[in-house]
Amino acid sequence: MRILLVEDEESIRDALRLNLELEGYEVVSTANGRKALDLIGGQHFDLLLLDVMLPDVDGFTITEQVRLTNTETPILLLTAKDMAQDRVTGLKKGADDYLTKPFNLEELLLRVRKLLQRSQRVKGESLGVFEFGNNKVNFETFEAITFRGEQIILTKKEAMLLKLLVERKNEVVSRNQILQAVWGYDVFPSTRTIDNFILAFRKYFEQDAKSPRFFHSIRGVGYKFAM
Please, what are the domains in the chain? Predict the structure, then answer.
């Protein structure tokens, strides 16, 4: 699980990063709100842990911007403010949870764990078996039945990429986000590799692969699954 930690107090940021990594999470951290938006736009994260008071762009604004295109990634806000109105504001902007400084570290780790578990459970429930255009895909067994009635077995990477695109249907998913989510942080196949996966999906699931209905390449940006 990849977590973006955005906290401008260095001592808190370092302590949180260390403890989250000890829990087994991969953590990317920054002290700047604008940099956080750049990271969110270019990478995949399973949870956002945001301080409210940040340089350039505050946590409320980051939350609001993220929720314009992404309603699924859990967001946990941290703040030194203890006013009820600030908590309400954060939740209205789209945050899933809110923790006031100073906080108990064990409580924060528990909330992170619960948010991730809930997020993964929702994704799993919604995408056990997925149907589109007379195609059916089972993301648990990697089995698929095409609109032609052919049964195929997807590779693990094919299933991971297809699931990512389906979970973010009608959104453009950048190449960097795909690389982070499917191949991992330190492995970077060529863009052509991803293109080949998309071509395979069109061959499997599109009635007209040359004029695709579902799988679209957005030149210079990434890929989109449309329904």
Answer: 2-124 (3.40.50.2300), 155-225 (1.10.10.10)
